[in-house]
What we know:
Chain A is mostly beta strands. Chain A has no helices and four strands. Chain A is 0% helix and 53% strand.
Amino acid sequence: xxxxxxxxxxxxxxxxxxxxxxxxxxxxxxxx
Amino acid sequence: xxxxxxxxxxxxxxxxxxxxxxxxxxxxxxxxxxxxxxxxxxxxxxxxxxxxxxxxxxxxxxxxxxxxxxxxxxxxxxxxxxxxxxxxxxxxxxxxxxxxxxxxxxxxxxxxxxxxxxxxxxxxxxxxxxxxxxxxxxxxxxxxxxxxxxxxxxxxxxxxxxxxxxxxxxxxxxxxxxxxxxxxxxxxxxxxxxxxxxxxxxxxxxxxxxxxxxxxxxxxxxxxxxxxxxxxxxxxxxxxxxxxxxxxxxxxxxxxxxxxxxxxxxxxxxxxxxxxxxxxxxxxxxxxxxxxxxxxxxxxxxxxxxxxxxxxxxxxxxxxxxxxxxxxxxxxxxxxxxxxxxxxxxxxxxxxxxxxxxxxxxxxxxxxxxxxxxxxxxxxxxxxxxxxxxxxxxxxxxxxxxxxxxxxxxxxxxxxxxxx
Lengths: 32, 420
C-alpha cells in the first residue's frame, strides 16, 4: 500500500527526508 | 522441416549501413512517440491505459481483485490461540515487525488480518513539531514539486495530477453527504487540537464547553501530546498573517453552529470565502508551489495512517481501480500505477492552501478504511463497472458546516489499510 500526499506550500518549504529513507508516523517530513 | 533445419547452410552477410541507421531512427522514433503519447477523451481528459513491459500485461490479466478478496478472507480466519504467538512471531521475523510496540498481547489477535491492522502502544509514535509529519510508517519513494500538472513516478515517467485526484466530468452525479452523528462529532471535535494558521489550541479549551461522554468511532489513538492553549488572539498568527475575526458570534445560534463559528474564527478559516462547492483541479496560488510525496508501506509496517498536518478534509473521491502491487519494483515498470489502482483521494485545505492525501490500495491490502467515513466501502463490486478515471464522491460538510469538512490535527488517526 502507498500514500500519496499532494499539497500547496510556500516556495521555501523544504523536505526533511530523503528518497528511500524509512519514516515513522509523526516524523517530520518537511517544514518552513 | 527437419531436413531444412539440419542441412540449410547459414550464411552471414553485413547489412548496409543505411539500413541499420534507418532501423535505429525508427526504434528511437517509436520510443519517443510512446513516451509522449497522451490519449484524451472527448472532454480533453487523459485516458489511462495499461502500459509497461510484457510481464506487467501478464499481471494485468490476472483477477487481482478476486485474488485480493480471497487473500483477505483467508487471513480473516480465526487462528487457534496456541498458534497465534508462534505464527505472528514468524511473520514479524520475516517482515521486520517490532513486537515490542504492539498494543495487545499476541494471543488476543484472532487472525493475521487482525494482527496486520494492529494498534501501537500509546507514545510509540511521538508527533514532531513540524508543519508536515509522516502519516504512516514506511519508506519515502519519491517527492518533489509538481510541474505542468504531472507527478514524477520514477525518473522519466510521470502521471497526471488531475487523473490522480479526479476531474469533475459534465453530467456526473452530485456528491453524497456523509452523515455524522452529532454526538460522535462533538466527541471528535473536542478531542482535536487545531493549529491551522499557526494557532495551537485544545478545542476543548478553545470552545469552553464540556466534553460529551459519548463514545466516538474516530477517537484518536496516537494523539498529539497535550499542549497548553496559545494566548487568545484574534488578530495575528505566528506567521504574521491576519486572521479574519469578522465571523459573527451569535449567541442565539444553536450550540453546534456557534462552536463552528468560534472555531472558524480562531483558526482563521473564512468559511464563506473559501468554501468550494465543487473541486475541479489544483490551482496553485502565487508564491506557492504544489509538492508531492509518495510513501510506501511494506507488509510488516504498521498499517494505520494518521493526519500528516492540521487540515480540513472537505471531500473524498473513491476510485474503484485495479489492485496491482505498489512495490518499488512495480512502480518502476508500470506507468500510471497510482492512477490505475483503487484509491481514496481525500481533498481539503490547510493554512497554505490546497491539501490532499491519497491512500492507494494494492493486491494484498485492497481495503482502505477512513474512520470518520463509515459509508466508504472499498474493494467491493466489479472492476469492469467502473471505467478508469470515474469515481464516487462524498462531502464532509456535515462534520463542521462552517469549516466545510472534517477538521484533523497532526497525528490524529485517520484510518488504515486492511488485508484483502
